Amino acid sequence: MHELTPVPSAVTPSVRSAGEVEYSRRYVRNGWIQFAALCWCFFLEGWNDGTTGPLIPAIQAHYHIGFAVVSLIFVTNCIGFLAGAFANVYLNDKLGFGKVRSIGSVCQIITYAIQSPAPPFPVLACAYAIAGFGISLQNAQANGFVGSLRDNVAAKLCILHGSYGATNPARLFPGVGAFASPLVATHFSHTRHWSFHFLVSIGIALTNTIVLISVFRFKTQDEVMAEAGHGPGEVGAANQSKYKEILGLKALHFMAFFALIYVGVEVTLGGWIVTYIIQRRHGGASSGYISSGFFGGLTLGRITLIWLNRKIGERRVIFIYAALAIGLEITIWLVPNLYENAIAVSFIGLLMGPMYPILVDHATKILPRWLLTGSVGWIAGFGQAGSAVLPFVTGILAARYGIGSLQPFMVAMMAAMICFWAVVPKDQRRVD
C-alpha cells in the first residue's frame, strides 16, 4: 500500500493547499477511529476479567466444587495466555496486525458460546483457555500499536488501559468495562440461569469483532499506521530469530515478572475479594458490587492520575503508589469493618490503575523499536498469566487455610512487585 507522507508541521494552515488540509484532517480522523477501536477491545477485556469474581460462588454452587477445583479455571486461562504470548510473534509476522486481532476477537465469541449453556465443568474450564489465547493476542497487538505511535504515547496508553473499564471509548470517558461487568455478573449470580451472563458477553464480543474488521480490514500494522499519517511502526532488520532476540533482552524479563505480579494482584483482588467479604465480613448478596468499586477505582486512577505521574516522575511514582496500596491492604486484613474494607479496596484500585500503562510506556522507551510488538506482546502475555497463577494460588491457600489468607498473600505479592520494579533499568539505549 502506498504510504501517504504526513504534512510537515512547519507549514502553517494558512499556506496549505486544500488537498493538504484534507489529508491532514483525514490522518487525525483515522487515528482517532483506530484508537477508539482499540479502546473498545480493552473494554471487552475488562468485561471478561470483571466477570469471574462475582460468578465464583455461583459456579461453586452449581458444580458442587471447592476452592481448589474452581481455581482450575485460572490454570486453563493461564495456559491460553502463555500460548497467545508465544504465538503472537509468529502470527504477527505471518498474518499481520488486522488478521491477528480478528482471530483474537473470534476466540472470545467461541468462549462465551461454550460457557453460556453452563456445560460440564471440565468444558467450562477449557473454554477459559480459548479466552486467554484470544485476549493475549489482542492485548499484545494493541499495546505494541499504541507504543509505536509518534505522539503522546504515555497519555494514550493510560486512556487505552482506562478503557479496560470505560463505557464509551469514542469519547474516551471512564465508567464501565471491568466496572460494569461485576454489576451484571452479580445480578446473574443470584438467578437460576447464572451462565446466561455469557450471552451478554457474546453480544459485546460480536460488536468488537465487527469494529475490528471494519476499522483495520485485515491490514498490517504499517498499513494501518500509514492511514493515520505515521511512519512504519517497527523498523530495523533482525540478524537472528526474533524469538531469540526478544528472549535475550534482560530488561524485558524484569518487566514481564513485574507485569505477572501486577496483573495477578489486580485480578486476584478484584475477584476473590467478593468471597472474602462474604465469608470474613459477613457481606450480603450485594458483595459483588465491591468488585465494581475496585475496578472503578482502577479506571479512575488511569485517567485522573496522569498529571501526577508526570509531576513526580513515572518511575518514582510506582514506588509511592505501591507503598500506599500495601498500607491499605493491611487495613483490609486487620480492620474487621465491611465499609472500611469496601472503601479501601476502591482506593487500592485507584493507586494500582496507572502502574500498567507506565510499565508499557517505559518498555517503548528502552526496547528496540523493531522488536516492540513482540516484546510488549511477551510482557502482556506473560503478565496476563498472572491473572491465572495468583488467583489459582489464592484458591489453594483458601482451601487449606481459609479465605483469610488472601490479604497476607496480597501484601507479599505487592512487596515482590516493588522489588521487580526496582531492578528494571531506568534507561537503556534503543538501537533503531
UniProtKB/TrEMBL annotation:
Cell location: Endomembrane system
Presence of keyword Transmembrane: yes
Superkingdom of the organism of origin: Eukaryota
Pfam families tied to this protein: MFS_1
Membrane-crossing segments per the record: 67-91, 196-216, 251-277, 289-308, 317-335, 341-359, 371-399, 405-424
PROSITE patterns recorded: MFS (PS50850)
Entry membrane topology: Multi-pass membrane protein
Molecular function per GO: transmembrane transporter activity
One term under GO cellular component: endomembrane system
UniProtKB keywords: Membrane, Transmembrane, Transmembrane helix, Transport
InterPro entries: MFS, MFS_dom, MFS_trans_sf, MFS_Transporter
SUPFAM superfamilies per record: MFS general substrate transporter
The Major facilitator superfamily (MFS) profile domain, residue ranges: 34-428
Family in the record: Belongs to the major facilitator superfamily.
Protein name: MFS general substrate transporter
Organism placement in taxonomy: Eukaryota, Fungi, Dikarya, Basidiomycota, Agaricomycotina
